[in-house]
Amino acid sequence: MAGRGASLPGLSEEESRLFLQEAGELLDTLEEGLVALGQGAASPDQVNLLFRAAHTLKGNAGAAGLEEVARRAHDLENELEPLRRGEPAPSRADVDRMLAEVDAMRAELGLAPEAPRAAEAEAPADEEAETEVEVRFSEQCPFLSVRSYQVLQAVRDAGGEVVASEPDEAAIEAGEEFQRLRLRFRGSPEEVLREIRAVPDVVRVERIGQAPPGPARTGGSGVASLESQAETLRVEVRLLDHLMNLIGELVVDRNRLGEAARRLGTGHDGVSLDEVVEHLARLSEELQATVTRARMQPLSTLFRRFPRLMRDLETSTGKSFDFVMEGEATELDRSVATLIADPLIHLLRNAVDHGVEPAEERRRAGKPERARIELRAWREENTIRISVADDGAGMDPEALRRRAVEKGFLGAEQAQRLSDREAIDLIFLPGFSTSRQVTEISGRGVGMDVVRRNVERIGGQVEVESRPGRGTRFILDLPLTVAILRVLLVEVGGIAVAVPLGAIDEVVEVRPERVERVGSEPVLRWRDRVLSLASLEAALEGRWRWEPAAGQTGLVVHHQGRRQVWAVDRLLGDQEVVVKGLGRWLDEARGLAGAAVLGDGRVALVLDVGGVMLAARVEG
Fold first, then answer.
1. Quick one: residue 320, left, alpha or beta (phi over 0 = left, psi -120 to 50 = alpha)?
2. Does the domain made of 299-395+434-479 have the CATH classification 3.30.565.10?
């Protein structure tokens, strides 16, 4: 397999990994700078940075014996030298040629580009991309071969296919000795990696490559097609020191708590258990906040890939637009940033393909010939908001209603009953597309449903605003971190259910005499609005026909601008919970976002508010 050639000639495996990691960063710098250069936005400092990146890459590649990479970097260095002397900026064609050199060096090193290029056609479904990973186990792991076999099975449980492993499956079954497991698989990396990490004694999973479909290939320099993508973060030493101090205090308090618990039965009152628990809670909260800060990274690490993507889209579509980014310094948990990369790419592609009109059409509409596409990020309390907006054609709710009827999603009467907001929301239905012609960029009838599902799976929401002829704006509301969630615990039908606090507007009393009817549907007046009323217990059982009972409490919940009242049996209080996945078979269950273990040992279902409300509209 490709992993056997991971080390560069004359370098150890660790030295090779570090070289490839730094080379990837230098190539990113070159790509970003060249795109800015092509837009006339490169300052003298940026030109110097470009030159230094090419010079450093040339030296590193030469030292590693990679002559072809060193030659290409040297050629780039020569082309950039006149710019340092103040000569005119290169033409678009020259910049395109230099970008092609960057792509060639990536291929030479086996470093896949961070984002798909607009001009590349999508691979057929039967040629799914392969990923390589390296799995390391605890030194105390007593059953290494058993755990390794569980890892291979985890790939299959996640719907993936094991292409190759080192050692191979026969050696694993024979119980041969080894310290680590490398494997290459096809399938969803996100799903597979989550299953692998759940295997006991797995302490590290390092993603070392995204291989192209088919057999492993080598570049002209003989370097195996590997991408060094270690899942590591650069963390300030100050934060790590503080984290270690907190952990030390936590261990002390853990011991104090054990001592206090042992003495409780003897009547000894020298240690206050309440004080210890209170201090332990404070330490845990501070420890949590510190770890969260350590995991934060600026969105610039994600956003930096988009200028090249948009430049390629402008070239391949022939459409003219200015691409503006704001808020790159906004910080977000690394895991959240990773999960929203693909949704943002899809939204940007759609903005070009569906949003921006041809120049002639814009002139007829009295618009500037060059369109404007904006990517913005900002923080509001404990939420990160990211918007993708264009000043293009916008979406016509009536056209969406007609399209839904044409494609058999709705009957004519159902479509006419939809509000404009609900009509626009039709774009999130699987397979729904307004495009009459399939392009290589978008319009295949897939994508927007995946965008919403991926965002909602991490506790976020997607909103869309659009006006015909004026443009479209998508807004992603994202949590700072996906692991810990503040919830309101309620009881329904004898089980504990967790509802995200961010989705709750108010708690109200549900009395039978306050319940009214609109047709056969129960409703409740809330302030100046009439909201549909649903039993959460009935909803979880797949029933929507029910009768309100005395003594119930209502939760006014909201999602995507809509509100509904959920009747529950009683409130159990609010707390922070650690959300765990439900596994392969239940991950797609409508209305469930995961599960959480409570302090008393009970397991609470964590609700996906949007999923429950969608089920209410479909079933009700």
1. beta
2. yes
Cα of 427 vs its chain's centroid, Å? 20
Domain ranges of the chain: 2-109, 130-211, 237-297, 299-395+434-479, 484-619
> What integer pLDDT is reported at residue 325 of this predicted model?
95
For position 618, what pLDDT does the model report? 42
Which of 184-188, 213-217, 294-298, 409-413 has the weakest average pLDDT? 213-217
Tokens 């704006």 found at: 473
Q: What is the pLDDT of residues 206-232, one digit of tens each?
A: 776 444 333 333 333 333 333 434 455
Do residues 42 and 50 lie in contact, with contact meaning Cβ atoms separated by under 8 Å?
A: yes
Residue 459 φ/ψ region, left for φ over 0, alpha for ψ in the -120 to 50 degree band, beta for the rest = left
Instruction: State the Cα angle at 549 between 546 and 550, rounded to 5°.
Output: 165
Order of strands, sheet of 495-500, starting from the edge strand that comes earlier in the sequence: 570-578, 484-492, 495-500, 603-607, 592-597
Q: How far apart are CA 107 and CA 117, in angstroms?
A: 14
Neighbours of 292 (CB within 10 A): 14
Expressed in percent and rounded to 5, the helix, strand and coil fractions of the chain are 45, 25, 30
Q: What is the pLDDT of residue 586?
A: 60
Fold of 484-619: SH3 type barrels. (2.30.30)
The answer, yes or no, to whether residue 587 has pLDDT greater than 60, is: no
**pLDDT over threshold 90, residue 323:** yes
Give helix then strand counts, H and E, for the chain: 19, 22
Q: How far apart are CA 620 and CA 611, in angstroms?
A: 14
Average pLDDT, the chain: 78
CB 224 within 8 A of CB 4: yes
Single out the residue of 189, 182, 188, 149 nearest to residue 166, CA to CA. Answer: 182
Fill in the DSSP letter of residue 218: B
pLDDT at residue 109 in the model: 86
Q: What is the pLDDT of residue 46?
A: 81
CATH homologous superfamily of 2-109 equals: HPT domain (1.20.120.160)
CATH topology of domain 130-211: Alpha-Beta Plaits (3.30.70)
Residues 572, 590: contact at Cβ < 8 Å? no
Handedness of CA 318, 319, 322, 324 (dihedral sign): negative
Q: Do domains 2-109 and 299-395+434-479 have the same CATH topology?
A: no
DSSP annotation of 229: B
The residue among 68 and 9 whose pLDDT is bigger is 68
Contacts 24+ apart (CB under 8 A), 508-516: 508/553, 508/554, 508/555, 508/556, 508/565, 509/553, 509/554, 510/548, 510/552, 510/553, 510/554, 510/565, 510/567, 511/548, 511/550, 512/548, 512/549, 512/550, 515/548
pTM of the model as a whole: 0.62
What's the rounded mean pLDDT across residues 47-69?
86
